[in-house]
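Lab notebook, bench 4. Still working through the backlog of constructs that have no structural model yet. Next entry is a single chain of 156 residues. Request: give me the structure tokens for it.
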Amino acid sequence: MLGGDDSNMNYVSRGPGGIRGPQGLPILKPPYGSITAIDLNTGEHLWQIPNGDTPESIRSHPALQGVELPRTGKDAHANVLVTKTLLFYGEGRGGDPLLHVVDKRTGEELTTIELPAPTTTAPMSYVHNGRQYIVLSVAGDGEPAQLVALALPEES
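Model written out:
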């Protein structure tokens, strides 16, 4: 992005996404953020999914009106936890306040859970009275830092 009134530089970065291209759109093609499952025995990539949906600033950009956009993911800091059958990820700083639940073998998104604010660190897991829980730290603009605990389905 061209330096504005607050800069004497020709180009400046305005946070996540780095330098913008024409009309303020990202200069690199999507995905802007992704999660990749890798078989650690072979190094083979098993699946890859975008970290979240397409950012509103891209989805509603005038230059892209009428363009069919795939789910691009966000340039955010995904926070991931893997259990026996599931992968949980919060979109993290720069993302939406959502927790995505994914089948860890296929990458298929099973559900999305709204949170009070974006996740800020990796989720934690514990078992109490035979039930598994995950705890997420969340915080955001106008939303104080807090812990959110969720019970997992029985076979996770």
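Notes after review: The radius of gyration is 18 Å. Residues 77-156 form a domain with the Thrombin, subunit H fold (CATH 2.40.10.480). Flag for follow-up if needed.
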